[in-house]
Amino acid sequence: MKKLILGSFCLLFFSLILEGQKQPESYCGYHEKSEWLTQYQQNPDAFLKRKSGAITYLPMAVHLVGKDDGTGHFPPRQVLDALCTLNSDFEDSEIQFYLEDEFNYLNNDAWYEHDFRGGRDMMVQNNVPANINSYFVDDPAGNCGYYSPGPDALANAKSCSGINDHTWAHEVGHLLSLPHPFVGWEGTDVNGNQPAPIRVNGNLVEFLDGSNCSNAADGFCDTKADYLSARWNCTGDGESRELIDPKGESFRVDGSLFMSYANDACSSRFSDDQTDAMHANVLNRRPELLKNPTPLASIDTEGGVQPLTPVAGETVSTGEVLISWEPVKNATHYYIEVSVFPNMAVLFEREIVTANEFLMKEISFERPHFWRIRPFNYFDFCTSYSDIFTFNVATASSTKTIEAIESFVVSPVPAESGNDLLIQLTTDESFSVNSSLISLTGQVLKTENLELNAGQQQFKFGLPNVPNGIYLLSLQNEKGERMIKRVVVN
Ligand SMILES: [Zn+2]
């Protein structure tokens, strides 16, 4: 088992190194302006409009695509970070995304690294109806991301979906009808030394003075002229190098728009007209997304997360161990990480659980373990980690923390509320201990003093009437050393 674990560590290290090497050839694979947007821009008054001041909540289905062998999925921690960034990016637009269901894990080499056709198959087969469908893969057809209008879903590269990346916001913008501000220029380099042509690839080129803004490029008059269809870095004031419009006017492109190709550090907003169009697109073209959910309150981690079991510094036996913590206000889910490294660099376990406990099975590494949790709910992903907690693991024969106790067995399993527990002990010498029944919230439910004699002995410990669940039976000597057994009441 140890070998196997070490082997998987190496694999993990290796895949961590491999990850992030792949650079997409192009930023975005969607180059269109939708017919719906053209009609909307011709007569916005004919469309339902948003009520400013009210947040629109849209359901998001997150698909995490791995390889056939079940590896390579975008890690849950990073999905939570990406969801947080997405909601921050849409906050000013009064649109927020929530989950209706857990992440959908898919294992398929042909989807993990796909061409547009493979991506289309993936979307058609897995889209969740009446949701915005987002797929996280290793290679979305050579792009950082793209929106596919046929299956009406988007695919993002894991490597372009970090906490400071805005690819997801950009692709959701496409899904909600927004083109690039430079639409028409895709794949064409602009020559900044001479005036741009009147048309590029059949599309009108936008003038700097705004005189053709409603029918050139993206059709939005509050997005400035933009001819840059390759990723670019903004200057200190958030603009591009100098370009010349068809009338001979010099200008610099505004890098602040998510829909531009300015680098992630430059972009921070949708324009008002873009925001209105996205809302109109939802109201008129996607009413099935409007389910009026009752948003869950934000996670409240004031006072921090309190660990329950194992007790801090406790030595537990190899086998299985129950990690538990006090419930966090408003949390419906917890992401837990367990590592044998104090900096959590390589994870032993990573799971999302819905209760405030996690049963770790087959723990066999005899060394300190470290764990932390990140509470969240389906509306609030911008949460931080708890402190890192630790416990020791040793083989069953060496777990005793009260030296003089050789064996400590509690039965029956499960126990019955109101009935007796049987405590069987073998000790080296005579001494007294406090035996306590403790709830997982740390409440001491009953304490009894036991006088131990050298040799074998047994005691009855009357269980109080307690609800079904998991409790701890603790023995503590005068030096403060203790031993703990789990008691299941059913
Ligand atoms: Zn794009």
Distance between the termini: 32 Å
CATH architecture of the largest domain: 3-Layer(aba) Sandwich
Strand content: 25-35%
Q: What can be said about the biggest beta sheet? A: 7 strands, mixed
Q: What oligomeric state best describes the polypeptide chains here?
A: single chain
**What is the number of beta strands?**
28
Class derived from helix and strand content? alpha/beta
Radius of gyration: 29 Å
CATH fold field value of the largest domain: Collagenase (Catalytic Domain)
What is the helix content? 10-25%
Q: How many discrete structural domains?
A: 3
Q: Kindly provide the name of the CATH class of the largest domain.
A: Alpha Beta
User: Number of helix segments?
Assistant: 7
Q: Indicate the overall shape.
A: elongated
User: Which ligands appear in the coordinates?
Assistant: zinc ion
Average pLDDT figure: 90
